[in-house]
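Hi F.,

I've been meaning to write this up properly since the lab meeting, where we talked about keeping a consistent format for the predictions we share between groups. The idea is simple: the sequence comes first, exactly as it goes in, then the structure tokens exactly as they come out, then a line or two of notes. No screenshots and no reformatting. I'm using this chain as the first example so we have something concrete to point to.
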Amino acid sequence: MRSGYRDFGIRPRSSSDLTTAALLIRSVLAEYGLPWEPTGADRHLLLVEDFDLATGGKCFAIKRHRQVFGTAAYYPINRGKNRVEIRKMYLLADARGEGLGR
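Output, unedited:
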């Protein structure tokens, strides 16, 4: 399934996006003075199938002009019907303020 918003494309993240997504997230974390923790808090980004997808979640790549500008994921939570937790939503500075979080 693919969808779009403005001139951004949003599609399920594939295994070919792993390196690009990891570099993007590391870059955004550094902007905010936060560390990249591939063996800690960010471990599940490298093992998407074991974490988000195994719980019924989804992971997405946000692209514009063939460049990945962001990532997002969600998984279901037990706080009512049709509830999810948004996880690991990171956008490069050029994509912020465009309403992609909606």
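Notes:
The beta strands are 3-5, 8-12, 58-64, 67-76, 84-91.
Helices lie at 18-31, 43-46.

If this format works for you, I'll send the rest the same way.

G.
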